[in-house]
Amino acid sequence: MLVALLWITSAAFAWQEGTHKLIQSLAYKQLTPEALAFVEPLVGQPPALQWLNLDQQFYQRRIDPSARWERALDLNLMPKSDEAFDPQSHCANRDCLVAGVLSSYRVLEDASRSKAEHQRALLFFVVLTARLHQPLNAGFVVDEGGRLVVIPAAESDVNLRWIWEQGLYQQAGGDWQLLSANWRAPSDLPEFAGMQATDWLAESRTLAIEQVYLPSLNAKWPAIAGRYEDLWQRQVSLAAMRIAESINQLVAPTTTSQD
Q1: How far apart are CA 212 and CA 7, in angstroms?
Q2: Residues 73-121: tens digit of each pLDDT
Q3: Do 240 and 27 form a contact (C-beta atoms < 8 A)?
Q4: Domains identified in the chain and CATH numbers
Q5: What are the tens digits of pLDDT across the range 131-164?
Q6: What's the CA gap between 185 and 191, in Å, rounded?
Q7: Which residues of 185-217 are buried (b: 16+ CB within 10 A; e: fewer)?
Q8: What number of helices (H) and strands (E) belong to the chain?
Q9: Using CA atoms, how far apart are residues 76 and 89, in angstroms rounded to an integer?
Q10: 24 close to 171: Cβ distance less than 8 angstroms
C-alpha cells in the first residue's frame, strides 16, 4: 500500500522553513553588541532581514549539482546498535552534520580568513547548528532518520520525520514571527558551556532514541503532537541559545587581570 505523505520532503531533510526562521529570530535577539558588530557586515544590509534569510541561502547552495559536500552535511544518522558517535566510522570523510558545525566554527575563529570565507562559515554554522538540534538528524540509518516510520492519521498517513520537520511547527501555529514575539524558553535550559557540537550531537542521539522513537509506537497523528510539544520547544530554544552564545563567545572582549 502506498502511504500518502511517506515521501513528503524526501529531497530536503530540513527543519520546516518557519522553524529555521524561528530559531534564527530567537538567536538574533540574544547576540551581544560585539557579536552584532561581527555578524552584520557578513550578512549584509539590512542585517536583521539577511540574518533571517540564512537558511534560504544555505538551501539554495544545495541546489547546485556540485554542492555534494553541502548536501552530505544534512544528517548524522547511525546504525541502531551504535549509541555513541564515532568520527572514524560515522564521519570518516568529514561529510556529516557535526563536522560541518565544527569546521565552520573554526573558520569563524580564524581572523586570518577572508570575509568571503567568514560569510560562508557563518551561514553554515547557523543553519547546521539548528539542524543539529533536530533529534532525528541523529536517528537511525535503517529508517532514514524517521522517514520510513509510518504514523497513522485520520486522512493520509504521515511519517515521523515529517512530524518533526513540519508537523510540530504547524501544530504550534505555523507563524514564526508570532511565535518569536511570544516565545518563552523553558526555565531549566542548561547553561551554555562553550561550543561543544559533539556533545550536542550526543544529546540529540539520546533524545531520538528515548524521547522520539519510543513515544511514536502505536501513536497516531495529530494526537502524538502532545508527546513532543515540550521537547520541540526545548530544542528550538537550545538551538537559538547555543547559536547566539557561540558567536557571543567568539567575539567577547578579553579582559586582563590587574595585580
Answers
A1: 19
A2: 778 999 999 878 888 888 877 889 999 999 999 999 999 999 999 999 9
A3: yes
A4: 17-250 (1.10.575.10)
A5: 999 999 999 999 999 999 999 998 899 999 999 9
A6: 13
A7: eeeeeeebeebebeebbbbbbebbbebbbeebe
A8: 13, 2
A9: 11
A10: no
